[in-house]
Amino acid sequence: MVGLFLLVGYSAFCGGQAEETGLDWTKDKMTVRVEAAGWILKKFPVQASADKFMADHPNITMEVTANADTSLNNYMLNWSAGDVHVDLSFGGATVQVAKLAFKDLLLPWNDFYTGEFSRDKFLTHSVELPKRGNDYYALPFMVEGMALEANRKLMVDAGLGTKSAPAKPGSLDELYEFAKKTTKGSGDVKDVYGFSWNFTNFGDQQLFCAINSLGGKAYNADGTPNLEGSELVDIFRFIKRVTMDGYGTKGTITDTNAGRSGLKAGTMAIIFEAASRAIEAKPALGDDAILLPFPGMEKNGTYIYAHNAFIPKATKVKEAVFAFMREQALGKEFARFGAEKYGKLPSMTRNYAGLSADFTQIQQWLANPKTVGDHPWVEGAKLNGYIWEIEQELVSSDITAEQAAAKLRKLAAELDLSVVK
Fold it and tell me: Within a 13 Å sphere around the CA of 281, how many CA atoms are in the beta-carbon half?
């Protein structure tokens, strides 16, 4: 998965533990630096929110710039050394932020969750997972759900249902047939590919969503990943078969956006990524950009994951950060912009009111009590790397599904995949 970040930083150097500075954020002058990765700047009204916050609080200056660093490794290095120049970071899935919590670098959000912002006002799974002991070390500002995104016209033209009732794959074999029927062209490069698995993004999200949807057990009782079920081999066998037979693209190995770009261009029939991809494709495809359940998803639920906001312990402006979150980042306007234009789902239940019907299906799948989500494993980021490595090898060599599964199990056994506590 791609970790991308929005940073709100205090202009002065902040080191060590959080301190009482005597500053009153409602009156004292201070500068707050907002730094956002490219996709966040595009898909959320960051500058507009900063402008409104400044208008409401003339004593605060907000500076918005782009952030080119899309990893959390710089935080690990710099924050551990006491070199902290930010007060709030937006972005990073729970499994990514977990490594900062494990190093005890984050300030808890416990005091934030009161009144209209109490935890029961958020989607339960996303708000409860980033927790270490009794402390909530991250706050979800948006959520995603996994599903199949499809081009309805390509499906109907291939005889897969009708415009009002497109067909749904009931098994991996049926999904293979969907891919086969919607593929067009011959040779090494097809005019239209029937299916895309992302080989460089959505690592644990794709895999454990598929395991869960197929009726398998994604996680053990202690929260560690379960890779022992037969579903793992079944999924790897499907990935290899659909790709090596020429109905699935390898494009995402070299371009992580190949699937979503192909869906928009009409050269990809079905992809398996975040449900937001269908919303993003609507300007190009109109109502032909649709969601489909991965086999078994309607019965067994989907996979939910969040992008989180988190605060370094060294911050001196916690109350100002909390105010920005309450007044802007968790507001209806901020949420609606990300949802209606780009399919980024609100983390607070109140912000679903008034959204279009496009969100009905994914909301139902997310609400399924069997739905699973990202877990804050100590070395979860390394597991993702192994997943991508093995999946790429699966479609680029003679390795079998059984061999690939055995390799992943062996590598995973060498990692600390306990849940951060």
Answer: 31
3 state SS for 193-248: ECEEECCCCCHHHHHHHHHHHCCCCCECCCCCECCCCHHHHHHHHHHHHHHHCCCE
pTM of structure: 0.86
Mean pLDDT of 92-107: 87
The backbone region for 9, taken as left when phi is positive above 0, alpha when psi lies in -120 to 50, beta otherwise, is beta
Could you tell me the domains of the chain?
6-144+304-373 (3.40.190.10), 146-303+377-413 (3.40.190.10)
Among candidate residues 111, 170, 116, the one with its CA nearest the CA of residue 292: 170
**Type of residue at 349:** T
Using alpha carbons only, give the angle 93, 261, 396 rounded to the nearest 5 degrees. 80
pLDDT of residue 16: 36
Structure tokens that stand for 108 in this block: 């808890």
Q: Do the Cβ atoms of 412 and 380 come closer than 8 Å?
A: no
Neighbours of 283 (CB within 10 A): 10
